[in-house]
Amino acid sequence: LAITGGFRAETILSGIPAGETTITYRINATDKAGNVGQNDSDPTTATISEDHIVKVDTLPPSFATPIGAETGHAWNPVTKAIVDDPKKASKNSIRLQFNEDLDGTTIQTLDFQVAGAAPQSAQWFADVPNSVFLTVGTLLPDAKPKIDLVGPISDKAGNSVQVGTVSAATDGISPTVTVSVTPKLDKKKVTIDVSSDESLLTPPTIMVNGGATAVPTLVGTNLFRTTFETTDVPNAYNVEVSASDTAGNPQSSGKATHNADGAIVFEIDNSIPSPLTDPVAAGIVFTTNPFITVDWTSEGTEYGLDGSGALVPPAALPIAVDLDKQDMVTLTKATLDGTDVLARIATSDNRTFILSTSNLALGDHTFVVNGTDAAGNTLLADVSLIFTVKIRPLFEVALKPGWNMISLPGAPADDKIDTVIGAIPVDTVLTYDPSTPQGWLAAVRTSPTAPFSGTLTTVSLGRAYWVHTSSFESIKVDIPTTAPGAAVLLPAINVQKGWNLVPIVDITGTLKSGNNLAGTPNVYLQGLSVARIYEYNPVNQQFVNIDPAAGALKIGQGYWVYFNTVGVLVP
């Protein structure tokens, strides 16, 4: 049959088998010159274009085999993918699978029934044309509902069907597994229970710190139990559980690491560490009203993770991540010189305990303490310490013949220059005050027994001094510590731009002359801009430059310091 620009041919296909059949066709044409050509095929392979293939479908769609419906499967419109992981299954969704692609325009909610009732919705998506997703009420985890096709649906060829049944949908929903450990803290033994909301294929596998426990025993409906017991050192234990339902859907509970969200952790604690005390055994205190401190914070840091996340037992401390959640201690015994003082001990956190004493006699005193942790562990032997109350010794500043640049670490009990220097052969004492017009203050005397005279009358905290002597005798002076609660401010020293004679102050009151002050000069002079620091060596009579970032400052010494600006030195 001729048509404009070509020819049209029609034919009736016969003998087509039932089902879907692919038919290819080829057209030969001859021009007036006798040249013969074919439709757009590749002459080297005789491959036929898709435009010259005809598919004939004579049968309507039907549910796929062996799985025509599976619970839990859902469509994710964002990722355009089927959610078919049973652990992430939707309990409100069923996926119907057909043996061929459907015509989505023929899909309606009322075309289907789930266990005899219409679903809430039925959805078809072009990305998965052989599937229909039914939204239903919440399914039981082991639900296998009957699915009926009760309305007409069609495939892409227009073949329609309105009858079909899946007698039991495949279970695609993992069980919900619940794990409980009782108790969370014990000296050696805990019970681990694993329950499921449906029957399991086999008893669950329970791992503790990566090792399998004994096979749990069924003790109730879908309830399995095992025990874990150890006599190892105190540690944290991480539980992981894996299980499968009778359909083979897997489920797990717990995490691989102790500190991950969702981790199931219990603690075995069969000992209690010894506390730290202040004063320490054989310690010396220079007050008759000392505070006795029992520091038991070590109870709360017995085990944890190192920097790489590996479990750290007590022998490998310190730790990066603390897993010890049981940090409280209850004191069971406290005596001072045989007298029960338990009721007098104060604590705000049951980790650090303080006993306030008063009017203790000079000499030795014995303090005894013991306690129990949350697991019931008590020290096998009491902690017993003997400390000594003494009168604070005089602070001693060593001198060498000639000039010495010195300072006192605290305020003397009596700051009169004659009292501080005493009867040692010091003939001249100088200090420099850059805030006054005269600058230098001086005191001189003619003999060790004569009084000093001049503009300098006291030796006080906040100044450094030049002292000239003819002997190796030391200055010995009473420097009391600042009592707690006393209405006295801690020292602050005003410094001027330029050169200042700077003392080295010891707030702790524990350092001796010649001891290095903790930290570098920059730490001591924090917040101040310094150009130079000089120490004087009386042996070779030379000034020594001190590196502010790496040098050391000594108790008892004085220093020449050049400040770039006015400021306040806060020791």
Description of the structure:
- The protein is 2% helix and 39% strand.
- The strands form 16 sheets. Strands 19, 21, 22, 25, 26 and 27 form a six-stranded mixed beta sheet that branches. The chain has a five-stranded mixed beta sheet with strand order 29-39-38-34-35, with no helix packed on it. A five-stranded antiparallel beta sheet has the order 41-45-42-43-44, with no helix packed on it.
- The chain starts with a strand and ends with a strand.
- The chain contains two helices and 52 strands.
- It has 571 residues and is mostly beta strands.
- Strand 8 (74-76) and strand 9 form a beta hairpin.
- The chain is elongated and about 145 Å long.
SSE layout:
Elements: E1 2-3, E2 6-7, E3 20-24, E4 28-30, E5 36-38, E6 53-57, E7 69-71, E8 74-76, E9 81-83, E10 93-97, E11 112-114, E12 121-123, E13 131-135, E14 147-149, E15 153-154, E16 160-161, E17 164-166, E18 177-182, E19 185-186, E20 189-196, E21 205-208, E22 211-212, E23 217-220, E24 223-229, E25 235-244, E26 250-253, E27 264-268, E28 276-278, E29 284-285, E30 291-295, E31 304-305, E32 311-312, E33 321-322, E34 329-336, E35 339-340, E36 346-347, E37 352-356, E38 363-373, E39 383-389, E40 395-397, E41 402-407, H1 417-421, E42 426-432, E43 440-444, E44 453-454, E45 464-469, E46 475-477, E47 493-495, E48 498-503, H2 521-524, E49 530-537, E50 542-545, E51 558-563, E52 567-569
Parallel strand pairs: 19-27, 29-39
Antiparallel strand pairs: 1-2, 3-6, 4-5, 7-10, 8-9, 10-13, 11-14, 12-13, 14-17, 15-16, 18-20, 20-24, 21-22, 21-25, 23-24, 25-26, 25-27, 28-30, 30-37, 31-32, 31-33, 34-35, 34-38, 36-37, 38-39, 40-46, 41-45, 42-43, 42-45, 43-44, 47-52, 48-51, 49-50, 49-51
